[in-house]
């Protein structure tokens, strides 16, 4: 099954919206890039966030930690591979770098990870149904 250029572009746009939302503290907007019962699993955090309320709370805590530390964090998604699934599903693999810049200091790489997303086409466009983050330690 081929993937349309329109769908690949839509996945890239989804990742752009998601990165800008979490970096700017728009927690509900970040959570809205997932399905209503979407899942976020990462070895960097003790428990997964599942569902809109938990996803929003996770993003709120993440951004509050950045504000408290005085560091600006940026999520940089690259090397995106979109793999066909069923008629309204895709899988995506991408590298995610989290870069931090403390006030008045040089930027540094916090983490380099791989994200593996199960994506679902919804009436609002592509959304992440399940994200698994793999750390490159």
From TrEMBL:
TM regions (residue ranges): none
Domain SnoaL-like positions: 5-131
Superkingdom as given in the UniProt entry: Bacteria
InterPro entries: NTF2-like_dom_sf (IPR032710), SnoaL-like (IPR037401)
One Pfam family in the UniProt entry: SnoaL_4
Name of the protein in question: SnoaL-like domain-containing protein
Organism: Pseudonocardia halophobica
């Amino acid at each position: 099954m081929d993937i349309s250029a329109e769908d690949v572009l839509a996945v890239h746009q989804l990742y752009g919206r998601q990165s800008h939302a979490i970096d700017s503290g728009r927690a509900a907007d970040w959570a809205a890039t997932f399905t209503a019962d979407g899942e976020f699993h990462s070895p960097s955090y003790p428990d997964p966030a599942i569902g809109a309320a938990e996803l929003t709370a996770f993003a709120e805590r993440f951004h509050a930690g950045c504000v408290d530390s005085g560091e600006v964090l940026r999520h940089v998604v690259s090397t995106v591979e979109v793999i066909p699934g069923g008629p309204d599903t895709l899988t995506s693999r991408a590298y995610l770098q989290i870069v931090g810049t403390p006030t008045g200091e040089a930027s540094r790489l916090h983490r380099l990870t791989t994200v593996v997303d199960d994506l679902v086409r919804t009436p609002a466009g592509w959304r992440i149904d399940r994200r698994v983050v793999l750390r490159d330690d």
